[in-house]
Amino acid sequence: MSMISQQHRNKSVLLFLPAQNFNEHEFLIVSNSLDSANYKTFIVSDSSFLCVGSNGLKVKNDIQLYNAHESNFAGFIIIGGSGTRNYWDNSSLQNIAKKFALNKKPVGALCCAPIILAKAGLLTEPATCFADDRKALEREGVEFVNSPVVANQKIVTGQDPASSTEFVNRFIHELSKL
Questions:
Q1: CB 129 within 8 A of CB 112
Q2: What is the second-level CATH architecture of the domain 6-176?
Q3: pLDDT in tens, 101-141
Q4: What is residue 71's DSSP assignment?
Q5: Could you tell me the residue ranges of all domains in the chain?
Q6: What torsion, rounded to 10 degrees, do the Cα atoms 178, 123, 93, 130 define?
Q7: Cβ neighbours of residue 90 under 8 Å, at least 6 residues apart?
Q8: 96 with 76: CB under 8 angstroms?
Q9: pTM of the model
Q10: What is each CA distance from 10 to 62, 73, 75, 152, in whole angstroms?
Q11: CA-to-CA distance for 117 and 122, rounded, in angstroms?
Q12: Closest to 100 (Cα-Cα) out of 85, 122, 128, 124
């Protein structure tokens, strides 16, 4: 990732997509909004070829999960979708989120993805997630808030695809404080 110059580093956001069944609506809203705000997005995944959305959208990842380094990016977002549940216990993904948080960089998670942040120990305040995953969030000791977006200390959680715009706007607000 040395190809990212210092000036672009502060304007780059890492987006995680599961290899299968990511939420296309969330991905498109988030990536287009970041692009409109002049942030460059880089897709990270463990897919060796293409990430495939729940409706068949194919996205090539830029970076393999094991090659992601927080020092190259201003923030990190985990996109939701049913495929994201397969990553709840993924220690590599949890560690990347922890490194961003330790470096006081914004970390965001949509839909079922906040469970990853909870399992990484990053959600110490109330948070939101997809309503169907409320019990999984609470099992990690995190109070569920029935709200589209909840932000605490640079950690932004979004409830569902309908909250994507509000979520990414709050995330961009956190990025602007860097």
A1: yes
A2: 3-Layer(aba) Sandwich (3.40)
A3: 999 999 999 999 999 999 999 998 999 999 999 999 999 99
A4: G
A5: 6-176
A6: -110
A7: 116
A8: yes
A9: 0.94
A10: 18, 6, 9, 21
A11: 5
A12: 122
